[in-house]
């Protein structure tokens, strides 16, 4: 298991800034998340931790995920529309998603132009963005051609 010192330190600093403790449970959750290579939701994360013998409360998982989003260790991802899904940006870096509402195909993309526009809009409105969840919903090329 890799150590991920940069992500660990970012998370620790955020917790300190918020007056929260870097508990053993949060550290184990962070390590598990950073080793996860697929999209996941809070419930599947909790279940995987329990299967590995990690003693952690479901509430701790739910309260910690927004903190991991805020410090950039996680980003929101796509899944079924009933719950939030997450992923570690990792090698792909930050990216956004296009989701086909017909077949469920997910297209991952990154647009520097969109990122700059978001930054400019935040500046124009004196808004301090912590993270964003950008998903476009529509029809992929194949489904569009069938219509």
Element layout with pairings:
Elements: H1 5-17, H2 24-35, H3 42-51, H4 58-70, E1 75-76, E2 86-87, E3 96-100, E4 106-109, H5 112-124, E5 135-138, H6 141-146
Parallel strand pairs: 3-5
Antiparallel strand pairs: 1-2, 3-4
Tell me what you see in this structure:
- The strands form two sheets. The protein has a three-stranded mixed β-sheet with strand order 4-3-5, with no helix packed on it. It has a two-stranded antiparallel sheet with strand order 1-2.
- The chain has helices at residues 5-17, 24-35, 42-51, 58-70, 112-124, 141-146; strands at residues 75-76, 86-87, 96-100, 106-109, 135-138.
- Helix 2 packs across helix 4 (58-70) and helix 3 crosses helix 4 (58-70).
- The protein folds into two domains: 1-92, Arc Repressor Mutant, subunit A (Orthogonal Bundle), CATH 1.10.10.10; 95-147, Ferric-uptake regulator, C-terminal dimerisarion domain (Dna Ligase, domain 1, 2-Layer Sandwich).
- The protein is an alpha+beta fold and 147 residues long.
Short synopsis of the structure:
The protein is of the alpha+beta class.
CATH evolutionary superfamily of the largest domain? Winged helix-like DNA-binding domain superfamily/Winged helix DNA-binding domain
Q: How many discrete structural domains?
A: 2
Mean pLDDT: 88
- How would you write the strand order of the largest sheet? 4-3-5
Please state the overall shape, judged from the principal axes of the Cα atoms. Answer: globular
What structural class do helix, strand and pairing data support? alpha+beta
Order of helices and strands: HHHHEEEEHEH
> Radius of gyration from the CA trace?
17 Å
Number of helices: 6
Could you give the distance between the termini? Answer: 48 Å
Largest sheet: 3 strands, mixed
So, CATH architecture of the largest domain? Orthogonal Bundle
Q: Which percent range fits the helix content? A: 40-55%
Highest CATH level, the class of the largest domain: Mainly Alpha
Number of strands: 5
CATH topology of the largest domain: Arc Repressor Mutant, subunit A
The residue ranges in which pLDDT falls below 50 over 5 or more consecutive positions are none
* Estimated share of beta-strand residues: 5-15%
